[in-house]
Amino acid sequence: MFGITVITFLTMALAPGDPAMIAAQAGGQISSDMSQEAYQMLRKELLLDKPIPLRYWYWLVGHPKEYNEAGEVINEENRVKGMLFGDFGTSMAPDRRPVSEKMFGKSAGEFWRSRFWATMSLALLAIGSSLVLAIPIGILQAMKQDSAFDKISSTILYALYSVPSYVMALPLILIFAVQLKLLPFQGMRSEGFDEMNAWGQFLDLAKHYVLIGLCSSYGAWAYYSRFVRQNMLEVVRQDYVRTARAKGVSEADITIKHVFRNTLIPVVTLMGMILPAIVGGSVILETIFSWPGMGRLMFESIMIRDFTTVMALTTITASLVLLGTLLADLSYGLIDPRIKYD
C-alpha cells in the first residue's frame, strides 16, 4: 500500500504541466493578465510551493492550517488531517470540495447516490452474475466435455472474451438505445426520478444498469466459466473420483461434493480479484455511458491534474485489491477443512 501511494504521488507530481494553472483554467479563474501574486497564492493554497516529499507527508499525516508571513506555524492544534486519519484532503478542482464528499456524499442519506456506490453496485452486479452464470456453465462444460453444448458455449465465450468491453458498448448502444429505443445509455437515473413511485424508480434504475452492467460483466462470465471448466477436468481425472464412481456414488454427488469443491480454491482466489479489477477498469465504460461513478471521476481528475482526488481513488482501489486477497485467503479454511490458520 505504501509503495502504491508513493509511486502514484510521484507520477502525478512529476507529470508535465502546472497543476495550479490547470486548476485555474478549469475554473475560469485565469486570464492573460492574471497577477503573479494571485498565481502564487493559488500555488500556496494547493501546497504546490512545498517540496514533493513534504507534500506527500502532508497528504499522508496532515499539515498545519495557519502560517504567518514568515511561513511559521501559528496554531499547531488547527491541523488538516491526512489520509491515515481518514481525510483524503480537498479537491484541486474548481469546486474545492472535500474528496471524501465527492466520493461518498455529504451524509449517509446521500451514499446511495454517491460515485462510490455507483461503481460498487456495478462491481457487485458483475460478481453476482459471475457466480450465478459462469460457475454453472463451467460445470456443465466439464461434465459434457466435447459435446455440442461444450463446443458451442466455448466458442461464444471465447468470442466474447476477445472483445473489449468499450468496443462492445458501442454496438449495444447503437442497437438497443438509438435504434430500438428500449434502454437508456446515459447516466444512472432519468429526469424526474425523484417524482416516481418506488416501483417506477426501481424500473428506471434497472433499465440504466442493463447495458453498462452487461458490458462490465460478460468478460468475467467468459473467463471464469473457462477457468472452472479447466480445473474441473483436472480434478475429474484424479484417483479418488474413480474410486467414488466404483463405490456407486451418484454422478451429482461426485460433481458437487468431490469435483467442484476441490476446484473452489483457485476459483475463490480469482473471485477475490474481480472486485478491484472491475473498479479499476471502469474508467472508459463509465465515461462512455456518462455513469456517475469513481471511474468517471478518475478520468475527470486526471484531465485537470487533481492529484488529491486521484490519490484517494488509487488508495481505495489498492485497498480493495488487498481486501479481496485477504478475504480469499481467509475463505480457504472454510472450503477445505485441511487448511488451518495458527
Description:
With 342 residues, the chain is an all-alpha fold. Helix content is 67%, strand content 2%. It has 14 helices and two strands. It has helices spanning 2-14, 19-26, 36-45, 52-61, 99-104, 115-143, 148-162, 165-179, 198-236, 239-246, 251-280, 283-288, 294-303, 307-335; strands at 62-64, 79-81. It has a two-stranded antiparallel ribbon. α1 (2-14) runs antiparallel to α14 (307-335), α6 (115-143) runs antiparallel to α11 and α11 (251-280) runs antiparallel to α14.
Q: Which key terms come to mind for this protein?
A:
342 residues; 67% helix; two-stranded antiparallel sheet; 14 helices; 2 strands; single chain; mainly alpha
Overall radius of gyration: 25 Å
- Secondary-structure-based class equals mainly alpha
| pLDDT < 50 runs, ≥5 residues | none
> Counting H and I runs of at least 4 residues, what is the number of helices?
14
Q: How much of the residues is beta strand, in percent?
A: under 5%
Number of strands: 2
How much helix is in the residues?
55-70%
